[in-house]
Design brief:
Length: 200
């Protein structure tokens, strides 16, 4: 396994994913019978910049990527599985998945754009980091106003998969009607039908 090491013998952070992929590619030994899907390819580092002098050490193992992926996927629709996976590894709470090209999504992000208030409330109750998209779905008008007062450009911000603030307010249903009205007063956009609605 090749990976550059610092003076203290620790692998540089930027080389870790390459080394880890090499271990996975060696196959068999650690593979379970129900092996997870293949790890997606990592884009090459574009380079052309000075790496920071500080080299972090890896004191703890990384959380399993497939566990994080499954937690985020279940957060779109399955509260029971979210609770089960959280009980197995609470550190997945604020973990994110890059679905490709920087489309980062957390469990809270997935539950928010699906309008799953029950899952959102569970995650927030465990300490998930609320954001403007979640606040819009929940109908938290004052919070949304505060975010936009702090940074007006957030009206054009995109959440996971490119979903807008307006969309998050739409999936919030009746509880978010005032937020949607407010967002439309700030920037009116054409509202398209939502293919799914939150469960009552």
């Amino acid at each position: 396994m090749s990976g550059q090491q610092g003076d203290d013998g620790q692998m540089a952070r930027r080389d870790f994913p390459v080394a880890a992929a090499g271990v996975l590619a060696l196959g068999g030994v650690a593979a379970a019978a129900d092996a997870p899907p293949a790890v997606p390819a990592e884009a090459p580092n574009p380079g052309g910049y000075a790496h920071p002098k500080f080299k972090p050490s890896w004191k703890k193992p990384l959380i399993n990527r497939v566990l994080v992926q499954d937690f985020v996927v279940y957060a779109h629709s399955d509260l029971k599985m979210v609770e089960e996976l959280f009980a197995k590894e609470p550190a997945v709470l604020n973990a994110t998945v890059d679905w490709g090209g920087g489309d980062w999504e957390s469990a809270l992000g997935g539950a928010s754009h699906m309008g799953r208030r029950d899952i959102v409330e569970f995650l927030l109750g465990k300490g998930a980091r609320i954001d403007i998209f979640c606040a819009a779905m929940l109908g938290q008008l004052e919070a949304v106003k505060a975010f936009l007062t702090l940074q007006p450009a957030l009206i054009d911000a995109k959440g996971p998969h490119g979903f807008s603030l307006h969309f998050h307010a739409q999936v919030g249903g009746k509880n978010s009607e005032k937020v949607l009205d407010y967002l439309q007063s700030v920037k009116k956009i054409e509202l398209k039908p939502v293919p799914f609605l939150p469960k009552s």
